[in-house]
Design brief:
The chain is built from 19 helices and 16 strands. With about 450 residues, the protein is α/β, with parallel strands linked by helices. Helix 6 links the parallel strand 6 and strand 7. The structure holds pyridoxal-5'-phosphate. The site of pyridoxal-5'-phosphate has 16 residues, from helix 11.
């Protein structure tokens, strides 16, 4: 199957191309030429599978030209062998809430679910066989550690991770900066996550630099990550056994929830996808008013959602704008020249068929954590709490699964404030927090990052 760019449908790429590049030439995002739609009988068959089997079936649709099914199956088994749960994820009932715990991987965040598979795909696709690949990635806190856990000590791969200096939680930072590995470079950028993401995107668009360092990316704009995340939408639907369900998703870069949108396109009976945002509410504003206007990033207690430029939203726009690459391109031009774009009423209506969006403030987040703890003796992390808070606005939807995106231990300080209790480190986190941290602080500029990378790979 071929892939194209949201801004140029005439371009054609293989799965391996898009896997390696992450971002399309000219700045667009990759989408597959076809999306498999399952019929009822096929859905019934899928519902009988365990997590790994289901993942194999779903992911295979998107990479069958390059990976044999049998090999994909063993790649997936291997990827999830380090997870605490044999079934990878865990659907739990907390009072009225159906919580899908996605944080039982090596770095306690849902990002592990895609990243572990991606790490093994780097080997399988032999992208670094003859020449070192330099993976450059921006993180709002969790992608970085998940990428390290997936890629450290792989042959011919270096990993450069840009995180916003002083804007992620202490434990998030420590998980990244104490793991070590000769091929890992942690860079604290004096700026926000949006600045980090902008630098990485611009470096990708600078062909001479990209080719010079054989650059690759594993940010949430990498289509392979979205594909791996589609699986748990199916899985929870099959386990809940309802006719139709909705999902509430703590959202930053619009990657995780976009996987839900693709699941719906594939025939999964999803009613609504609820975007939960924090004060950085650009997605809430665009979905409810049509105006997409990045504001300055505000720091919150849900740092992994402190994002104002939600890159994967472009992938939704492509379908909302009747699959017109030129319309997507023109909105993206507006965004870069006027710092905003506006959607028409009929486009907003189209989005609202599938999505709802709610902003949850830090104060609300803290009281949700407190409330859940008091009522159910169960601790949720702040990101997950925004999902719980957003879901509460839609009681009429009834069966709503909230995606639990991180383990509360990663946000120990906030949990302590909310419930007055310190959390112990979960057993499956192999982390020695007291180890020396290694990272370099550098300025918010493309040239400084480029010089840093070039000096390290010399
Ligand atoms: C990355 C992250 C999110 C946001 O996911 P997106 O795919 O960027 O929308 C939410 N919660 C946590 C804990 C995360 O790490």
């Amino acid at each position: 199957m071929n892939y194209f760019s949201t801004r140029d449908k005439s371009l054609k790429f293989s799965f391996k191309d898009i896997f390696l590049r992450g971002l399309a030439p000219g700045g667009g995002l990759f989408l597959p030429a076809e999306i498999k739609k399952y019929n009822q009988k096929e859905l019934n068959n899928l519902s009988q599978l365990n997590y790994n089997e289901l993942a194999t079936e779903i992911i295979f649709n998107f990479c069958s030209d390059e990976i044999k099914k049998k090999e994909l199956s063993s790649l997936i088994q291997k990827s999830y062998s380090s997870f605490k749960d044999k079934e990878v994820v865990n659907l739990k009932k907390i009072g009225e809430i159906d919580l899908l715990e996605l944080y039982h991987g090596p770095t306690l965040a849902f990002k592990d679910i895609a990243m572990q598979v991606i790490g093994n795909m780097y080997d399988y696709l032999e992208v670094a066989k003859d020449k070192t690949v330099n993976v450059v990635v921006a993180t709002s806190g969790d992608t970085g550690s998940a990428a390290i856990a997936a890629l450290s000590n792989r042959k011919n791969i270096n990993l450069f991770i840009l995180h916003p200096h002083n804007k992620i939680s202490n434990i998030q930072r420590k998980i990244m900066t104490t793991i070590g590995g000769a091929n890992i470079y942690n860079i604290a950028i004096e700026g926000s996550f949006d600045d980090c993401q902008k630098i990485v995107k611009e470096l990708f668009n600078e062909d001479s630099f990209r080719l010079k360092i054989n650059m690759s990316g594993v940010n949430s704009i990498n289509w392979a990550r979205i594909v791996c995340q589609i699986v748990y939408y199916f899985y929870s639907f099959f386990r809940l056994k309802k006719n139709k369900i909705s999902f509430s998703v703590p959202t930053g870069n619009f990657g995780d929830i976009y996987a839900g949108y693709v699941a719906k396109k594939m025939g999964l009976p999803i009613n609504k996808l609820i975007v939960a945002t924090n004060k950085n509410d650009i997605l809430q504003r665009v979905i409810n008013t049509g105006e997409y206007k990045p504001d300055t990033v505000k720091s919150t207690i849900t740092p992994s959602m402190d994002i104002q430029v939600a890159s994967n939203f472009e992938r939704l726009l492509y379908y909302i704008l009747d699959e017109s690459d030129s319309k997507v391109g023109s909105l993206m031009n507006d965004l870069s020249s006027k710092s905003l774009f506006n959607l028409e009423k009929k486009e907003i209506d189209k989005i609202k068929k599938d999505f709802e969006a709610v902003k949850i403030t830090d104060e609300e987040t803290v009281s949700i954590i407190d409330e859940i703890y008091k009522e159910h003796k169960f601790i949720i992390d702040p990101h997950t709490a925004t999902g719980v808070g957003a879901a509460k606005n839609f009681k009429n939807l009834r069966d709503i699964v909230v995606l639990g995106t991180a383990h509360p231990y990663k946000f120990n300080d906030t949990i302590k404030k909310a419930i007055g209790k310190n959390l112990d480190s979960p057993k499956h986190l192999k982390l020695n927090i007291d180890k020396k941290e290694t990272f370099d602080i550098i300025g918010n500029s493309n040239s400084e990052v480029k010089n840093y990378i070039l000096a390290k790979i010399k």
